[in-house]
Write a structure and sequence with these properties.
The protein is of the alpha/beta class. It folds into two domains: 243 residues, Aspartate Aminotransferase, domain 2 (3-Layer(aba) Sandwich); 103 residues, Aspartate Aminotransferase, domain 1 (Alpha-Beta Complex), CATH 3.90.1150.10. Helices cover 36% and strands 15% of the residues. The structure holds 4'-deoxy-4'-aminopyridoxal-5'-phosphate (PMP).
Length: 362
Amino acid sequence: MRVINFNPGPASLPLPALERARDELLDFQGSGMSVMEHSHRSLEYMAVHEATLSLMARLLEVPPTHQILFMAGSASHQFAQVPMNFLPSGASADYLMTGVWSEKAFDEAKYYGAPRMAASMVGPDKRYTRIPRQDELRLDPKAAYVHLTSNNTIFGTQWHDFPEVGSVPLVADMSSDFLWRKFDVRPFRFIYAGAQKNLGPSGVTVVIADKDYLASGRKDIPKIFRYSTHAENNSLYNTPPSFAVYLVRNVLEWIDSVGGLPRLEQWNREKAALLYGAVDRHPDFYRAPVERESRSVMNAVFQLPTEALEAAFVADAKQQGMVGLKGHRTAGGIRVSMYNAVSVENVRTLVAFMDHFVKTRG
Ligand code: PMP
């Protein structure tokens, strides 16, 4: 029996994508072996690799100026690799600080240059409860790039409109809201997203970047860390995380089969409206710290009046087949992650539970 999985990542994956992997696991397309046993240069794997690239390009309408890369490793690797490639020694880059993951990205940049906080939304207790407004950004027109975290997985805030940064390259960590909807790729010079929330299993990180920007990266760093190496070799310079890419392919085909990103956006907005609706019906019981305009469609966070009630909430939900609701260990409270594979029906079930929980324990 599968549970309703509100995990923050690794997270729920669409059942058809998993079933397909199960059916193909031992014998991939009559080849007598699993896709993960194939050479990454085999016709079989190459077809998967290309299909994943072209499906993503089509679903997202990636412009011809940009290239998609599959990088082994996680978003945390990108925190370091971005400044390694794009921050000249001692130069400055602007970081928009909206949560723990922005802080981690910022800290890695210090090894290469002088990152600057061009906005910091940190509040009391090191918590973040909103996204900065455009007029709060103190951007340096000479910065090497501007870095932002599009969705703050831990604090439940999200950029709903991206900032205007002039001619400075815009770099975004989209790990926890990539492909929740269609968005305009063109204003971004560089996007990265770990797969394990909306897209697939951990182990692969997707990069979408301007081709000229990729080529412009530093050449005085080891070849394997240069984005240009991976761009020139179509992400096949070294052995890619082939099984993870294969699963991303399955997830993308599922997205395509249900109606593409417009349909996912409709579902994701419906889920968020249902969930925040329940929170707002009982504001004295479900206390949402995030300002309304900054609320994340992907991760909703709230606190209950006591930690004991929060523990009971998590335990009771688990008994009813709903898991993954405990807040991040540093933030406490409850966190509901509603990535693409969590259905509207799943959220309805949780909302009914929330209404009932207030009645019986509130
Ligand atoms: N960025 C964001 C927005 C994240 O949510 C996470 C992980 N939850 C990371 C980066 C780091 O991902 P990883 O642990 O795969 O390096």
